[in-house]
Amino acid sequence: MVKEKLQITVLVQTKNEEVGIGACLSQLTDFDEVIVVDSNSTDRTREIAVEHGAKVFLFTWNGAYPKKKQWQLENLATEHDWVLFMDADESPTPELISELRSAVHEMESGVVDGYDIPLDYVFAGRDLKYGHRVVKRALLNKRRAAFPTMNDLAAPGMGELEGHYQPVVTGETRRLKGAIRHDDKDPVRTWFTRHNGYSDWEAYLRTHASVRADVAVRRSRQGRLFDSVPFKPLVFFAYAFILRAGFRDGRAGLDYALALAFYYWQIELKVREATSQSDGGSQ
């Protein structure tokens, strides 16, 4: 029996994703519409997307707001008001698909305008069952949601994509149990490259109080908590590897907890450097 398509538009973010885009799109057959929004890839990303039956739109950032995701909410004529933001290294788990089918009537009722979805990570080739988990507001009613404009255009590290904060919805948000599986097919060095950029952005926030305060109110509760604790590298490692039982994932769990602790160490080191340079320049 062929199941009815989910009346949701999936918006897939790409830039030079030929390694993983095919695997991503092959997992989206339950959705009625799939759109790839490509940032001028120079590889075969767009060709592969077309081969998989996806619609393809180009996005060229002009250096201002709206950034990429908000631009899509404002400019793409999607078949459906409900949109699911996905990266090219992500795919919905069967549990999430089943849960979305059960949530259709709730979505149509207008009671809920957004859903928070947890991420399941694959790191160094292994599925992680424990440790730190990110939850992102990825499913939105586009007519009742928006990514806020932040005063962070001078900050390095993010570029065309919105930073680490949640979109704002008019009505209620709920959290789903089913997850999005995050499986980056690129070498692990690309993880460190991306997070080096992210740490630049985070360090900028910590040295610009008004921007940090503006972003803080848009973060998840978990994000606000981690933002406030001291000794982040050590605390985060203890949280991810011990409290959240990352050790049960073996070597991959250790690698992931260390990588994230290193990310927070980078932020603190860059903040100290920026503060020292500022103090030296003011003397």
From TrEMBL:
Record bears the keyword Transferase: yes
Residue ranges constituting the Glycosyltransferase 2-like domain according to the UniProt record:
9-115
In the record, what terms sit under GO molecular function? transferase activity
Q: Which SUPFAM superfamilies match?
A: Nucleotide-diphospho-sugar transferases
For this protein, the record's CDD domains field holds: Beta4Glucosyltransferase
- Keywords for this entry? Transferase
Protein name per Swiss-Prot or TrEMBL: Glycosyltransferase involved in cell wall biosynthesis
Q: Say which species the protein is native to.
A: Glaciihabitans tibetensis
Could you read off the lineage of the organism from its UniProt record? Bacteria, Bacillati, Actinomycetota, Actinomycetes, Micrococcales
